[in-house]
Amino acid sequence: MYLCRLIMEDIISKIKVISRESTFPVLMSLCAVHCFNDLLQSVVSAVYPMLKDDLSLTFAQIGLITLVYQIAASVFQPVVGYLFDRRPYVGSLPMGMIFTTAGIILFAFSMSITAVLVAVFLVGMGSSTLHPEASRITSLASHGRRGLAQSIFQVGGNLGTSVGPLFVALIVAPHGRHYIVWFLIVSAMSFYAMRGICKWYAGYLESGRGDGRVEFRRKCPLSGCHTIFVICVIMVLIFSKYIYMASLTNYYTFYLIEEFGVSIRMSQIYLFVFLVATVAGTLVGGPLGDRYGRKPVIWVSILGTAPFSLAMPHCGLAFTVIFSFCAGFMLSSAFPAILLYAQELLPNKLGLVSGLFFGFAFGVAGIAAAILGDYIDAYGIKAVYGVCAYTPLLGIVACLIPNLKKLPQEESL
């Protein structure tokens, strides 16, 4: 408890410092936009139990829907990041929200698997456009406190992801899937929040600082071959994190319904508990990485999830909910540290790196969801959860990445 209090006091003190910066309103707007975007994105998986009943879908088809969504949300992210690194565009964030809004409208009224796939593809395209651009703008507006700034940005996304299922349980579940159209209010709020970001970003680009041809070029901390090796190791860490996250975000409600006989509405509330933990973990991960280095945070957060993930399949309902909270907290603290670690490896390619790692994370989650859906149909959901519980043990490979904070000097790429 004492350690937790010290951590929270440190985070609060850093927030007070960064709140005095002129770009703080931009960071808070980015947090809000990320929240609204991911809230809309989370509606897709939160409605899965209703969608399964409405269209008589199998778990394999649920996995296919997730795969299409995650591919759209992953493959295009590095492309978007690369293009906007070279040619920054002020209207990139509203462009992404237009895709998401169109997808949400179609998803509310889809009456066939084909229409659902088109809808989730549009929602995924919105995510592909928003995430790399918003993450890059967050780094530009951080005034050197990139860990805290990225945590503020990521907290917005995790908060949106966590409250999405709760809103679905309160608004959509009692009335039917068509009530998803009420989430267009969230879309309108997102467009409003983007106004301040676009205005600041336009001024930033007009000043010449956003032009990749004249921007200050920083040295990379590692040699080219070493950088490639470390990125591959980071990919393994993301692989371990998002396989387990996919099992929870997509099938946790089904597991609770089958194993403990809870209602659809209560399963959404229990999912909300898990997702709230991801908000808290994200807020802690970035500042701790600023203070102690990215490597220790990555190591502890992923490998430290294993005790809880391994215990969950053997517990009753109460301890399952408690351990899901602990697992969500530990695992979510890793991503801000992983993303910033990668950006520090390639400091002149912020959009590309953000798109690559957001995209790879989404892609792993989508492929994992599709494969898990097939295995659940074949072997049952409890058996699959028992296997997925071991994936956080892959966090052991974090021992292979160097601690950039302790490097004696920079190496030229």
Topology:
Blueprint: H1 2-18, H2 24-46, H3 48-55, H4 59-72, H5 76-86, H6 92-109, H7 113-140, H8 146-172, H9 184-206, H10 224-260, H11 264-292, H12 294-303, H13 306-311, H14 317-332, H15 334-345, H16 350-379, H17 381-388
Model description:
The chain is 77% helix and 0% strand. The chain contains 17 helices and no strands. The chain has helices at 2-18, 24-46, 48-55, 59-72, 76-86, 92-109, 113-140, 146-172, 184-206, 224-260, 264-292, 294-303, 306-311, 317-332, 334-345, 350-379, 381-388. The chain starts with a helix and ends in a 25-residue tail after the last helix.
Task: Give a nutshell description of this structure.
The protein has 413 residues and is mainly α.
List keywords for this structure.
413 residues; mainly alpha; 17 helices; 77% helix; disordered C terminus
What is the radius of gyration? Answer: 20 Å
Q: What general outline do the C-alpha atoms trace? A: globular
Termini gap: 43 Å
List low-confidence stretches: 211-216, 409-413
Which class of secondary structure composition applies to the elements?
A: mainly alpha
The main sheet comes to: none
| Number of discrete helical segments | 17
The proportion of residues forming helix, as a percent range, comes to over 70%
* Average of the residue pLDDT scores: 81
Order of helices and strands: HHHHHHHHHHHHHHHHH
Number of strands: 0
In percent, how much strand structure appears in the residues?
Answer: under 5%
